[in-house]
Amino acid sequence: MSDKNETRQNFSGEAEKVEEFNEFRERMNERILDSANINIKRFFNLDTRVYDEGNLSKQTKEMLGLVASLVLRCDECIKYHVQQCHELGLKEEEFFEVLNVGLVVGGSIVIPHMREAVDFWDQLQ
Amino acid sequence: MSDKNETRQNFSGEAEKVEEFNEFRERMNERILDSANINIKRFFNLDTRVYDEGNLSKQTKEMLGLVASLVLRCDECIKYHVQQCHELGLKEEEFFEVLNVGLVVGGSIVIPHMREAVDFWDQLQ
Amino acid sequence: MSDKNETRQNFSGEAEKVEEFNEFRERMNERILDSANINIKRFFNLDTRVYDEGNLSKQTKEMLGLVASLVLRCDECIKYHVQQCHELGLKEEEFFEVLNVGLVVGGSIVIPHMREAVDFWDQLQ
Amino acid sequence: MSDKNETRQNFSGEAEKVEEFNEFRERMNERILDSANINIKRFFNLDTRVYDEGNLSKQTKEMLGLVASLVLRCDECIKYHVQQCHELGLKEEEFFEVLNVGLVVGGSIVIPHMREAVDFWDQLQ
Amino acid sequence: MSDKNETRQNFSGEAEKVEEFNEFRERMNERILDSANINIKRFFNLDTRVYDEGNLSKQTKEMLGLVASLVLRCDECIKYHVQQCHELGLKEEEFFEVLNVGLVVGGSIVIPHMREAVDFWDQLQ
Amino acid sequence: MSDKNETRQNFSGEAEKVEEFNEFRERMNERILDSANINIKRFFNLDTRVYDEGNLSKQTKEMLGLVASLVLRCDECIKYHVQQCHELGLKEEEFFEVLNVGLVVGGSIVIPHMREAVDFWDQLQ
After folding, report:
1. B53, B63, E100, F115: which could join D28 in a potential S-S bond, CB 3.0 to 4.6 Å?
2. In chain F, what residues touch A109 (CB-CB under 8 Å)?
3. Do B50 and F53 contact (CB within 8 A), yes or no?
């Protein structure tokens, strides 16, 4: 199999992965918010608001969310914040500096999650 | 694709997921217990006994196991305790209150695992 | 030094420890809530409400909070929930069963925090 | 005891706490770097460089270090980054927004460490 | 389906899993090292050197890496060190003793990762 | 204050710290084992046996316990295993290599605990 084919195959496969990730995420969030539990709703609401533009820019806050997710090694959370950072125009060399802080703080166990983060970032291009 | 079809497809797919989860779990446990290591056997034994009916009911203990697994973000452990709680007759609104404590204690990184927990709970219905 | 004296000395010393713990906790909470940050206030509010009597009793929820704090090894949180459980009339043999679930789930690294929990429990008697 | 006295007493006590913290930190770092272990030296070197001004500003990187330390609940690390952020001119309302992201991502177990962070911040004023 | 067939099927399936694991690992590492970030390169370099033969043997260091990865519950890291330990001639009964220390220190949440570790070990035979 | 005086002062102060650490540890363990909870006793028993000489030497197992405690950042556990390693004749340059693996795996958040470990090691000399 040629490199070119593999890349093409990845491209479509990856696009599906991004979509699939977002679809499951949204479907389950709805399911959870449909439950009567008011405190869970409040938490979800808070989880959105905390990243709103404030004294710090939305981009800075999303970088904070990304590094926090990275050192806590939560792949879903990482992907979500990678997506947000990307949409907000974070540059690749800035993205890698965020990862680098997470790597030094959290150690080599962060590496597999860094791989996922970079893989997801590449799919978003 | 209609919603109805998707649900039907999920239903059978999910049933397989529960089975598959249980099958791998049991096969590997046997493999591990077949090893001569006596202390591992003792730990596995302890891991069963700690949830036995005692001064606290088995249901309460399984809820404790569930919230502990949730904040430590161990999907396999979560699924196991969701299954136990379900079999012991925990009601959905109680189930969500257990999740809610875990969510507030453990923060938004718990959310992806909460999604898995609710998804697994729905498969057990 | 006789055992009896040591115990007496502990008694008063420990009482101070409980008070000191509560004093610092409250002073800093006030300081934090005095900051203009509305989302932090919302989180603190949520952190109280989640333990309110609901479909599960307040006592069950406090046990859930205790075991979650134990496996996450947060001494301050452990102390807070030990205090709540004690006030709500949890019996010592029930208390130890909560600890036991946390110990098996979280492993031997939980032991130092279990020591603190038991020490704090004894101070509350 | 009047509030005013307590504050004054704190002021000097706190100043000592900052100094003591820095003294032990530096003494042990020297001790560790005196050991022949070259790879430990390399790690310490890396741990400094990663916060250097780059594509992201030093201040942004220190905020990243702070939130990462907060969700991993490492008091020493938190204090170090609070100190750096403070020296680099971070404003109090920005500081609280960093804490807020950490609180929502990491949950209520982060609160005791947030208290320490704010206490340390106040000592630096 | 006979046991024999299942085993045979596993054998080839598993071989692919080992390969696939190594392929993704290497591809993403290259991608990451291709980024201009010098500090990430330095970390990766350090991550290799720390396991070099030194005052402690390479095998001892790989066992240390394995138990550390196990209690931190990082499947990718576990697999990597299982592979290294296996290549360096660690015996199965020694392997299980490493797992056992990790199990007692880290608790029952380690069990799913222990299953993965043993499954991967068996694939390497 | 001269360096020599400081060292002497440390020496006696530190010796007390080692003793105090061991005293609280033993007193609380007894208190916990006096509780009727049979499963806690079993866990404590297991926690001793897992470090017994086996296919791996006691020293190797204590190093495994040390690195696991280090990456999980449990100061009490670290101190216990440092003490055991020291008694079993681990050399300083080997000790630092264990720390180094923990540092690279667990990242810079391990550093404060490494400081404690080295401080405790020095007190044992």
Report:
1. F115
2. 71, 105-107
3. no
Contact E103 B40 (CB under 8 A): yes
Structure tokens at A71: 């050192």
Q: How far does D5 lie from chain E, in Å, by closest CA? A: 47
**Structure token pair of residue E29:** 């590492």
- Asked if the C-beta of A35 comes within 8 angstroms of chain B's C-beta atoms, the answer is yes
Phi, psi (degrees; rounded to nearest 5) at A2? -75, 155
Token pair recorded at residue F119? 């401080």
Instruction: Assess contact for C100 and F38: CB atoms under 8 A.
Output: no
pLDDT reading at D5 higher than 90: no
pLDDT digits (tens, 9 = 90+) for D44-70: 999 999 999 999 999 999 999 999 999
Superfamily of domain E3-124: AhpD-like (1.20.1290.10)
Separation of alpha carbons B50 and C110, rounded Å: 15
Contact B75, E116 (CB under 8 A): no
CA distance C35 to chain E (A): 36
Q: What is the pLDDT along chain C (125 residues), one digit of tens a residue?
A: 333 333 333 344 556 678 888 888 899 889 988 887 899 999 999 999 999 999 999 999 999 999 999 999 999 999 999 999 999 999 999 999 999 999 999 999 999 999 999 999 999 98
Residue E111 tokens read as: 């069990």
Q: Where are the domains of chain D?
A: 3-124
Q: What is the 3-state secondary structure (H, E, C) of chain B?
A: CCHHHHHHHHHHHHHHHHHHHHHHHHHHHHHHHHCCCHHHHHHHHHHHHCCCCCCCCHHHHHHHHHHHHHHCCCHHHHHHHHHHHHHCCCCHHHHHHHHHHHHHHHCHHHHHHHHHHHHHHHHHC
With 0-12 / 13-18 / 19 or more C-beta atoms within 10 angstroms meaning exposed / middle / buried, residue B8 is exposed
Rg, chain A, Cα only: 16
User: What sign results for the dihedral spanned by CA atoms B46, B52, B54, B59?
Assistant: positive
B53-88 residues labelled b (16+ CB within 10 A) or e (exposed): ebbbeebbbbbbbbbbbbbbbbbbbbbbbbbbbbee
pLDDT tens, per residue, chain B with 125 residues: 333 333 333 444 556 678 888 888 899 889 988 887 899 999 999 999 999 999 999 999 999 999 999 999 999 999 999 999 999 999 999 999 999 999 999 999 999 999 999 999 999 98
F17 Cβ neighbours under 8 A, 6+ residues apart: F123
Q: Which residue has the tokens 């309302």?
A: D93
For residues A85 and A78, the answer to whether their CB atoms sit within 8 Å is no
Q: Is the Cβ–Cβ distance between A37 and B93 less than 8 Å?
A: yes
Regions of chain F where pLDDT drops below 50: 1-12
